[in-house]
Amino acid sequence: VQLQASGGGWVQSGGSLRLSCAASGSAYRSYTMAWFRQAPGKEREFVAAMKAYNSNPIHANSVKGRFTMSRDNAKNMAYLQMDSLKPEDTAVYFCGAGRPITSMISSPMGYNYWGQGTQVTVSS
Q1: Residue 53 burial (CB < 10 Å; 0-12/13-18/19+)?
Q2: Which tens digits make up the pLDDT trace of 5-51?
């Protein structure tokens, strides 16, 4: 699976962005898709995930109520709608694909494939 993330940019606090992750490969539908982010000097942090055949996304507490993950299996796409952005959301955002066990769904180690990352900058 090859992944390509896009949609990042600069936005003022309180603004919105929508990230997209395009996946290649016929096995896309069988993978859990996830979004992680990494700020300078920090470890990669879980943001959201959606299992292969489950329509209910899982969101990190830090973004719950502000971010919404979705996926379109027909288009091999995953999305992250980010609203009410805060300066602390500033990071490089990565999409990942894998088949993690439930306990690893929020760990980067659960994912085998990564996109190149897209920068999100939120100014105060």
Answers
A1: exposed
A2: 999 999 999 999 999 999 998 788 899 999 999 999 999 999 999 99
Q: For 50-71, how does the pLDDT look when each residue is reduced to its tens digit (9 = 90+)?
A: 998 777 999 999 999 999 999 9
φ, ψ dihedrals at 42, nearest 5°: -120, 165
Closest CA to 36 of 101, 120, 103: 120
**How far apart are the C-alpha atoms of 70 and 56, rounded to whole Å?**
9
